[in-house]
Amino acid sequence: MRKPLVVLKRLCIERLRCLRQVELTLAPTVNIFVGPNAAGKTSVLEAIYLLSRGKSFRTRHTTELIQSGEQVCRCVAQASASGGAVHRLGIELTRAGRRVRVDGRTVRSARELTRFLRVQVVDPESHRLVSGGPGNRRGLLDWGGFHVEPKFPAQWVEYGRALTQRNALLRVGAPDREVAPWEHALALAGERLTAQRAKWISELTRLVAEELEYVMPECVLRLEFRRGWPEGRTLEEALAAARTGDRRVGYTRVGPHRADVVLTTGLGPAARMLSQGQQKLLVLALVIAQFRLVSERTGGGGVLLVDDLAAELDRHHWEIAMARLRALGVQLVVTALDEAVAMMPGNEEAQLFHVEQGVVRDTGRRASHVVAPQG
What we know:
Strand content: 15-25%
CATH topology of the largest domain: Rossmann fold
Number of domains: 2
Distance between the termini: 54 Å
Number of strands: 15
Structural class: alpha/beta
Oligomer: single chain
CATH architecture of the largest domain: 3-Layer(aba) Sandwich
């Protein structure tokens, strides 16, 4: 499944957090947003993420994005494909819900946005991909499947529907004859999802090792995929065996929704053996490897959001990280506290923006025109 490279050309943001009204023209390669804390830099990234996922990477409650005292916020983008096509993407959030539009038509699901705009983020909380619960790692894993396997989104929806039905029947104590058909449907979709996940992990492992050679060569990483039910059984057999206990607790305890990717270094679990800064380098390697694999399989690019990563890394590691990010060939949107990031080698052609008190200003300069402080 080949996809055209899509980048953001224009971005309009209205009443999102501290951003009252912002209109930007983005460079297709590297964009750097510089400003103090709480100025609104991360909110720009949040708007782009919202236009791809229909949600925030900072909060589960999208109403928090609506500016205080307002009832609605809007984000609109013009996305350009390598074949020349231009798509208009929009999302409007209200206190009651959201409305998503693609090329002038209202669509039912935010997944329609994701089809056009491929976005990932590395932010100050990204270390939770390593130290947090398995849901974070499943999310990264399924992002790849969604963009590569044409049937993956439908199978994911089918699995979720069957899971919801089985859980509802368990909670009311429905008899086995009513539960079993939904277990069959759940198992069919779940086995397909798991096969795709296992294949993806197998291919991803090689690229993660390559990226770690650049950003953290001292780290030898093992990725172990745990599918979410006992080995030696089919999923349908595992569901049937767990039915009595599941009925007692009221939910399904086995299946792909319980899967995990266990990250282990040569010294032990990555969550325990790596510092927070090292965990972020590991996340960076995972995200870059994901983008590389998706690009290999589809020919497409995407947008990578990088929020204040420089604050966690020394200059040496930040320069290496930026070099790997630029080598991806995707559109980068990077935030930083000062212009030192813009002055790093390789960033000379980056587009530079200043952000302060919710106002975003295109400096009209490439980073090569930034003058280093004297002294």
